[in-house]
Amino acid sequence: MPWLQLRLNATAETAEKVGDLMSACGALSVTFLDSKDTPVFEPLPGETRLWGETDVMGLWDAEADMDIVVNYLQHHGGLSEGQRYKLEPLEDKDWEREWMDNFHPMQFGKRLWICPSWRDAPAPDAVNVILDPGLAFGTGTHPTTSLCLQWLDSLELKDKTVIDFGCGSGILAVAALKLGAKHAIGIDIDPQAIQASRDNAERNGVSDRLELYLPEQQPDNLKADVVVANILAGPLKQLASQIVTLPKSGGHLALSGVLESQAEDVATAYSGAITLDPIIHQEEWARISGVAK
């Protein structure tokens, strides 16, 4: 069945009211996208963002009279006069199947391939990570994940311990283990990420070398030879004092999930404890890396 999506801007203070008004006039679902804390929705360098700090999106049956919906929102304060909004049809698709059909094996660096679990590995003699991201973030298709995978492939990981801070699907921890790491530790605030990481480790035959923790469960005084944190610029800055304690002296650290425009600011938060490498860019994203002092 086809759908109609109404998308408009709101503030953090008004978004809930707008969502309630959408529900009251027949929205089948309402979604909030917080642009302030989610870089994937931030503007690209030089781009002016069309929407405000919070996007509110409502979904209606294609037969709904959207003039009535818009008038209702305007009358009840959910849509001010002259405020821009976007109304668009959504084609009815099997979105999961379409995504699976377009997720192909990908190579990172010289040795590493990420291969979805429903496809054959293209290079059986290479280092192949078989991945099913499930409900957790991390497939290798996003530049931030790609930057981290390339970095891991460039290191000598034999007999090393690796921490994947914000492990998501476990792609970085599992890749490190397949590349020769002796032991890996994944940390994430989302229990679904912990489960996805566990499943992917089992799928790749490395579950006996991977420990997984929610932050409140992680051991004290945790240290590793290699630490990678592919999260967001805001949390990377807020948690800098915690993250810089994770690599051993002389250990390697990489940070991503950062836009080019945010990279210098994030790097500054780590410069006191990390001897930084040149910042590496891919598309509009960046990777910050270095060695613990």
Automatic annotation (TrEMBL):
Catalyzed reactions per annotation: L-lysyl-[protein] + 3 S-adenosyl-L-methionine = N(6),N(6),N(6)-trimethyl-L-lysyl-[protein] + 3 S-adenosyl-L-homocysteine + 3 H(+)
GO MF annotation, one: methyltransferase activity
Keyword S-adenosyl-L-methionine: yes
Enzyme Commission number(s) of this protein: 2.1.1.-
GO biological process: methylation
Keywords, alphabetical: Cytoplasm, Methyltransferase, Ribonucleoprotein, Ribosomal protein, S-adenosyl-L-methionine, Transferase
Domain of life of the organism encoding this protein: Bacteria
A cellular component term, taken from the record's GO annotations: ribosome
Main location: cytoplasm
Function comment: Methylates ribosomal protein L11.
Family: Belongs to the methyltransferase superfamily. PrmA family.
NCBIfam families tied to this protein: prmA (TIGR00406)
Protein name per Swiss-Prot or TrEMBL: Ribosomal protein L11 methyltransferase
